[in-house]
Design brief:
Elements (H helix, E strand, L loop, with lengths): L1 H22 L8 H4 L7 H11 L7 E3 L5 E3 H12 L3 H12 L9 H5 L15 H4 L4
Antiparallel strand pairs: 1-2
Helix pairs in contact: 3-4
Length: 135
Amino acid sequence: MKKIVTIFLLSLLVIPQVLFAAEFNPNYIISDEEMQNYQSMTRSDIQAFLEEKGGYISNYKTEDWEGTTRKASDIIYRAAKESKINPKYILVKLQKEQSLIEDKDPSQKQLDWATGYAVCDSCSMSDPDIQKHKG
């Protein structure tokens, strides 16, 4: 009887993992619809999220591409809306590339290359072709 109970309990642990593995598709991470859902967060949702995480950019202000000083949350919101891309994607990118969502004291380099755009692992950030993408 003890053996049957043990086998039953083990099967409860293994079967869900097997089912999940059968459903996982590494080529499908996010739907186009979700990726393009630029209205998934409001400006205040983004700010609240940043404040909850407590990183430096929760209070960060800088000039945007129009020369207007704005909060990071406003820049994220506007970029998402203008590019029709989910602001959650931008937030994930900021954390993945430079840890800017949670880092309390990022370097200037982290801020300059926030999304990692145009910088490959073996590239020199001083390369003039890459420098034009800084900021």
